[in-house]
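Incident log, structure service

09:12 report received: a user says their structure output differs between two submissions of the same chain.
09:20 pulled the input from the user's history:
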Amino acid sequence: MTDTGELTFRRVHAAPPELLFDCMTRPEHLTHFWGPTGTTTPLDGIVVDLRPGGAFETTMVNERDGSSHTMRATYVEVDRPHRLVWIEPESRGGMKTTVTFHPLDDGRTEVVTHQTNVPAAFRAAEAQAGFQTSLDRFAAYLERATS
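09:34 re-ran on a clean worker, output below:
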């Protein structure tokens, strides 16, 4: 039996769903924010084959020691600009991430990231804090891109 659970993160951005979806699916955007603070994700370390069954891979490099970690996933659903789903098969049992983009009446968009089959290590406070910094980096990138 594996110890897995669920996580949900919500953010509201002053941008339309189409832009947010594109930022999450185009390497030229992902390279600017993907990964927690203290990492970089070089453009040549990003693979996006944006179709169900297509590959989604990012290689994050630790700025402190140069070590790297590659996240490998397969897209399950691609519905621009509403929903994006991928599964990371290397995580125990296959961690599933679903990102939905909900337009709000005032021109902003709520982005909900829901993960299921999340291993205990990813649910730890330190891991969640790291993920939150990635969301913060995404928000800061959007502010620069839309100003």
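09:41 both user submissions now match this output. Likely a transient worker issue. Closing.
09:42 reviewer note: The two ends are 49 Å apart (CA to CA). Strands lie at 4-13, 39-40, 46-48, 55-62, 68-79, 83-88, 95-103, 109-119.
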